[in-house]
Amino acid sequence: MRIKITIKIVLCVVLVQLILLTGTQAYAAKPREIDQTARMAALGKVWGLLKYYHPEVAKGQIDWDEVLVNAIPAVKAALDYDSFNQEIDNLIQRAGDVTVGDYNPQTPAHPNEPLFKWIKDSSLFNNEVRKKLMLVQRKHVPAENYYVQAGPVGNTYYTNEKGNDDPFHPYPDENHRLLALYRFWNIIQYFFPYKKDIGEDWEDVLEEFVPRLIDAADLWDYQLTMKEATVRINDTHGYMYSYYLLVRYGWIYAPVELRYIEGKTIVTRAYDSLMDPPGALQEGDIILKTHNTDVDEYRESVRKYSHGSNEPAKERIISEYVQMGSTWTLPFTVLRNGQTLDVSVAGYYSAYVEQARRAEDLAAGKWKLLPGNIGYVSMGVLEKEDVDAAMSELVNTRAIIFDLRYNARSTQYLISDYLNPEPVDFVKFTTPNMDYPGEFPFTGTYDTGSENPGYYKGKVVLLFDEFTQSHGEFVCMALQTAPDVTLIGSQTAGADGNYSSCWLPGYISFHFSGLGIYYPDGTPTQRIGIVPDIVVRPTVQGIQADRDEVLERAVQFIETNQ
Description:
By secondary structure, this protein is α+β, with helices and mostly antiparallel strands.
């Protein structure tokens, strides 16, 4: 009896072992697959790391674009973990030998370690590949890079990148579409000073757009998808230029300024010198239709292609889409004095519309004296050579209003000399660290103003809105150092700092803020813009009554101090 029980127990143990062994063998025999999007996104990250951190690639003697184009089909076909890692290892070897044996795991981590957290993903990379990638990152030897150069003020240039060499092929093949995405993504990854302010995980953006670029079915699908990707950096400097998108959306502008106010698209300025027929569009007109489409529907259709650091800036860009088209006559439906009217107006190149705006501003005067002994300076047309005359004439006023709603010329330092009793710090920058891409060290602070015991003692008021961008915001920062200054208006465009540009396959280029701009205490301006002390926005009723409500509020503040 005991013998039978023992035999049964032995048989059960053997059976269990056979089941476990069979299961293990079956599991081992089945390759671990990696999702295609994850593989292709990882390829883009590895390619970018090697491009900016591997010393051999940096020399530019390897056509790193061509290496990628040749690697994409192999990685796409490498469905399982082992074959994928073999292809990634092949890419690393193509860049140049990386000896794992030299890797010291105790080497101090890169100061910007979160930038490289993806390297540690064991679900994608095996131990050997991870070691090699970390070796490239941590043992990086600073050297000049063929693919990126520092400009005179620190922002980056990409003069050796290809993309503008074939204007007749705006729809590249799949491999070059992915090249465009990878080039763009990695430039933002390593050289965009505001990447942490984008508002979402930048790695998620790459994974989102990889399958979309693979599947882009035609010219428009490709170009619009890339445009949407560039918009995702949330930067009013961050736009994509393409001749073919100009053809699609137009390059002819109605001779007006449009703004989005109280949920309506309204004409805030109409340039009569260009208006043909006269009065076709008038200040206060509310746009109901554009491109024979309901204006709100049209605004929504172009929203994802409209760049902007914040919502007011984005609405400003959307309004530009509303006013432009591809024909020399542009149709609109407007609401005017309670009546709905269909109108058509002659269109112009944007430069002509800008010239008309500037001519009107010049005609209104670069500076003037308002009632109540209040000075007013139109900063959009005041030139450096005008500063002494303007300040001499306004020196005895009770207050000076500096209007930056249409940006400014480079007059900030000359004006600051009049407004400040002594030099005062107003800004510091971050610039890309060309030795360690992905780092953005701060510069020292820069001052404005000079020793001037006879400085202007009256109130200083700055006016601004979403049209105040980049240099205009920089001027605001300089002038707000005045001892008695008040900021009135609404959120500015939130995009300061010299911008950088790069070409992408398909004869398209993208642009982005290349320098970080901060107040001396480290407070950013990107996306936030200049913050007003008194928030004032135009209203539809005010525009239709031909009132400048922002200027009126400034005068009220000066007169009442409230």
